[in-house]
Amino acid sequence: MQIACPVCGGFNYEQLFIKRDEIFVRCTVCTLMLINPPPDLSQSTATYDEDYSHAYIRKAPKKLKRCAGWVRRMQRRFVRSGKWLDVGCSAGFVVKAASDLGFDAYGVELEPAAVRWASDVLNLANVRCGLLEAQRYDSASFDVISLYDVIEHVPDLNRLLDELYRILAPGGIIEIRTPDLGHWRTPRDLSKWKEVKPSEHLYYFNSATLQKLFELHDFRTAYARPMFNPALDIYFRKSA
To answer: Is the model's pLDDT at 66 over the cut of 90?
Structure first.
């Protein structure tokens, strides 16, 4: 069964293509691209397993260095210290970098092997396994929340944003990174775009649709970082 567009609430779609028996459509009102009808949750979560995590972990030194750069950029532009939550933290590289650079850092991740590695190897005590909404973090408790290559995987976008708004402190910053449907390097034939991943990437944003989604939940755009690669990197602020 088709779902309503999570950005504009409509049911006006044009079919773009079918890949691995999943139908990719574009909302004709707001231009969000999505898989609709959506795959079962079990199909989506099955795309992340221990093998996926270990492939990521093998790049640990490079990933840790890169994540430290992301944290320093946040410090230069927005928040020097405080509580940081990385949603979809995988093996905890952002959590480790944020902790080393002075934040009280936390992470949440669905894949158990990645969480075990974060705990056993990186000695991170604040990485939890499960859905964000199940963690019951205190309201207004985080100064920074990051979601790097995560939001495109989330089945219920508006539920996620409600929870992000609840746990972010007034004036706090959320950084979202996700593939950019509207980037000049994104191929015209979207069926051939490497970011099109059935059962895995459920939603495909451009700058307008991502910002509209966050505006619906009372966030305002603080900064949209120009990207050479076909990705969005947008910072949103919760009103004080």
So the answer is: yes
pLDDT of residue 48: 60
Measured distance CA(225)–CA(178) in Å, rounded: 12
With respect to residue 141, please indicate whether it lies within any of the assigned structural domains.
yes
How far lies 8's CA from each of 4, 27, 232, in Å?
Answer: 8, 9, 20
Residues in Cβ contact with 5 at an 8 Å cutoff, skipping those fewer than 6 apart = 11, 12, 13, 27, 29, 30, 32, 34
Residue 166 lies in a domain: yes
| Burial profile 62-89: b = 16 or more Cβ within 10 angstroms, e = fewer | ebbeebbebbeebbeebbeebbbbbbbb
| Average pLDDT estimate for 11-20 | 97
Rounded to an integer, what distance in angstroms lies between the CA atom of residue 83 and that of residue 130?
Answer: 20
Tokens of 167: 């746990």
Residue found by looking up tokens 């000049």 in the block = 184
User: Which residue range is the domain that position 217 belongs to?
Assistant: 45-194+206-238
Tell me, what's the pLDDT at 55?
Answer: 73
* Helix H or strand E segment including 18: strand 13-19
Q: How many domains does the chain have?
A: 1
pLDDT at 62 over 70: yes
The answer, yes or no, to whether residue 177 has pLDDT greater than 70, is yes
Residue 52 pLDDT exceeds 80: no
Domain containing residue 119: CATH number = 3.40.50.150
Domain for residue 18, yes or no? no
User: CA–CA separation, 34 vs 13, rounded Å?
Assistant: 10
Which pLDDT score, from 0 to 100, does residue 97 have? 98
Q: Which two tokens stand for residue 117?
A: 């590695």
Residues 89-116 have a mean pLDDT of: 96
